[in-house]
Model the fold of this input.
Amino acid sequence: MQAPYIHPTAVIDSGATIGAGTYVWHFCHVMPLAIIGSGCKLGQNVFIDNNVKIGNGVKIQNNVSIYNGVNIEEDVFIGPSVVFTNVINPRSFIERKNEFKPTLIKKGATIGANATIVCGITIGEYALIGAGTVVTKDVAAYAMVVGNPARQLGWVSEAGIKLVFDIEGKAFCSVHSQAYTLVDNKVHIV
Done:
């Protein structure tokens, strides 16, 4: 795989790790203790803080800041202007760096444009967060959530197709020819 591409306007601090085939576009800033996997794409004006780990194949659209305490697994899509937090009760006059709450975005999840992700939560594998959603609590794997605060509307496949379960708890994704089951409010691949 090719070496990472770093746009001349991007600032990559010494010590940052950027995987092969990753693109870092205009006006990005990657801090020295950040780790970015292979085959990622960072759009214009993306900030990656210290102690952030980003898996392979992640796409981060324009104007997103990933703060200390956020961990992103592989194949995650983060839409433009998504907001992450890392402190529950910030005050400008109180230093709370020792109170960062970890946030985990699991494999294959999608976060729509302008969503806000409150710190201390986990977004499950292949979950789909609608544009503008405010996520204040954990989101189950394959769940589709929207609104403020986020509420679950249903389930999606790994391809992001809405799953419609029959009375036996079975659904099928036509895009990947994959069957799913819903058992105890959890989606499983058959």
The mean pLDDT is 97. The chain is about 0% helix and 35% strand. The domain at 5-158 is CATH 2.160.10.10 (UDP N-Acetylglucosamine Acyltransferase; domain 1). The first strand starts at residue 5 and ends at 6.
